[in-house]
Structures are given as C-alpha cells and as structure tokens.
Design goal:
This protein is α/β, with parallel strands linked by helices.
Amino acid sequence: MKKILAVVRREFVERVRTKAFVISTVLLPVFMVAMVLLPALMMSGGDRTTRVAVVDASGMDLGQSLSRALAAEKIGSGEQAKARYTVQVFPATAADVAKVRGDLIASTGFSDRTHKDGWDGVLVLTDDTLASGKLAYYGSNVGSLEAMARLQRGVSNALAGVRLGKSGVDAALVRRAMAPADMDTTKVSDGKLTGQSGQASFFIAYFMGFILYIAILIYGQQTMTSVIEEKTSRIMEVLTSSLTPFQMLLGKVLGVGAAGLAQMLIWGGSVFLLSSQRAPLAGLFGIGAGAMNSFPIPTMPAGLLMVFLVYFALGFLLYGALYAAIGAMCNTIQETQQYAIFVTVFILVGFFAVFALIKDPTGQLGVTMSYIPFFAPFTMPVRWSLTSVPPLELALSLGLMLVALLACVWLAARIYRTGILMYGKKPSWGELWRWIRA
C-alpha cells in the first residue's frame, strides 16, 4: 500500500506544480466571474437616458403621441426606475422639415462633456408616417442593434395606439389584452419542489457534461503520456524492480485522478462562492442588483454533487486505466493515436448523449445509456439533475460501472504488465491477445 501511495503522491505533485495546472485552475474561475460580471456591466453601462428630438411634420400631432409613449418607458422598475427617453417635439411643415432636421442634426452626436445640450438622435415624422409606418432616425447610437430594436418597438406601439384610437378602439385595452405571458418554471422531483428553474437545470446538466468530458479527455491523455515518457526514458526498468505492474498502474491512475479531482473541487468552490456572494460582487463593481440577478448562477444540490463526484471518479478510473494500457503498448505519442481513437470515440458519444438527455431525460435512449458503463459517467449525473431517478436504477448503474471498472483494470493490468518493457514496433492485435492470455 505504501508503494502505491508513493506513486500516487509523485503523480499528484508532478501535475499540480506545473504552470499549466495552475493557470487552468485559476483561469476558469476568472472566466466564470467575467461571464457573470461582463454582461451585467454591459447592461448597466448602456442603461442611460437617451435624448431624442422628434421633428413632427405629420400634420396631426403624431409627435405628441410618440412623445408620451416613449416617455412611459423606464429603465429598471420600482421607485428607482428612470426614464429611458427624454423627448422634445419640434413641429415642422413639409416645406421647412429639411431645415429643422438639419439644425437638430448639427447638435447631435456629441459627448456630454463637449455638448451637454446635444441630442442622441433625431426622429423625423412625415405626413405619410401613420399610413405607411415609414420614418427616419439620425443618431449616434444607430450601431447598437438592441437600442434600435427597443426604439423601433416603442415607435411601433405609439403608431398602433394612434391607429386604434382613430378607429374608435381603446389602445390601452388592446395593450392589456395583448400583454405577453410571463411563465416561471420550477423543477419537481418525487412530488417535491426542488427550487430550481428550468434554466438552472439546463445549465447544471450542460456544465457537468462539459466538465466531465474535458477532465477525462485531458487527464486520461496525461496518464497515457506519462507512461510513454517513463517507458522511453527506461525508468520503467528501475521501477519494476521494486513495484509490481499493477501497483504502478493503480498509483499512476489514482495520482492523476486526484489532481483532476482537486481541480474539480477548486472549480466547484468557485461556483459556490459566485452563487452565494452575488450581492457583494455587484456592489464591488458598482452593478445594480437587477442586472446581476438577471444572470443567476445555478446552485448544485448536495445530492447531485455527490452523484457527480462518484461518477467522475469511477469514469476517470475506467478511462484512465485504458489510456495507461495504450501508453504501455506504444513507444511514441504518434503511435498512441491509432489506439486512443477508440477510447476517444466512447468519450465523445457519452458527451453528445448529454444533449439527447437534456431534450428528453426520461426517453428510452437516455435511460439505456445511463446503464452502459462507458457512457454512464456522462448520462447518469445529467439524468439525475433533470428528472427523478429511482434508487434501484442508480444502484444498478453504479453496480455495472464497478463491474466494468474491475474488468477494464484487469485487462489493462495484463497489457501493462507486458507492454511497459516492450520496445520497438507497436504490437499487433494478435500480440495483444497473447499478452492478455499470458
């Protein structure tokens, strides 16, 4: 046992003290903070009152109706909400509309520092605007698609209100009748409310599948590369004098897996801190609570976290043993690609099965793949996060995982035992079969 622990300690230390491990461990939390704060900063930064000058050449006071409609739009909600638009109407005729428009455009597009009384945009209404909906806008913010879409919606609602009023229909009544539904989604598991929204369940499922895919692919290949390096440097010949091949295989897989698990714990702790300390973070960066809450970080329940970690450990041991066996079979990194592609295909299929589960977590495909040991590390945690999984089905999936793990470790150990001291050409499939039978 002491010899296995010595190998585990060496592999763990070799991984965690590298610059790549430190950088990747730090960058993901930084990236998560940026993904939460940047959209909120962008939203809060763009939420300022826009000064619009309306040139009304419609001949029917259309500008006043438009002014009232735009003035009713607010930034935020509650008592702290501020006007989204400040509108001033400039009446004009068909003869002088070009002159009025030109004078206003001359005061448009300046920063507040150079021209405090300037306009952000000029909206021109003609006598054909009400009938055709055609109008022109000249502004400094026309490159903002979101701002232009919001302004267009406001103008469209104002025109619709005027048209309905001229037809004898109460525009306010129509707006109330056509108000869109606002549906909140909450997950139910075993007849109990979990408190998770549908959006939170989706993000948790996708996040777990993606992290597991990246971790197994990266750390599994690191295990394979480590075996190749020790084999080509002939260190294996020294190690075999004091360690059995099984001890080397188990120590190497456990050591690399422990480094990956440590990184998972750091990332998981970062997610927990971000989800629980959103208010202090918002205050630190001067972001409003409303903007911060519009980008919530879903929290992971304790039961789901345990299921994820168990399947992560079992999945990594299974794939790590196979990658180590491939490393023992080959002499160079280039040679490993011929055999590693088979393992990588299983990982890819397991990852893409996550999308099928997100679409239908109770479907036959998702249920079946959660029992297949090579795919269960990806599918069962996602299935658990999206729907209720009976304990018997979870136990059956874990049991099959353990059986497959023991079979893969036994197979990998027999290949590893012979392959670590074999140099020269890579073995054929017939030679591999003889190694296993020996």
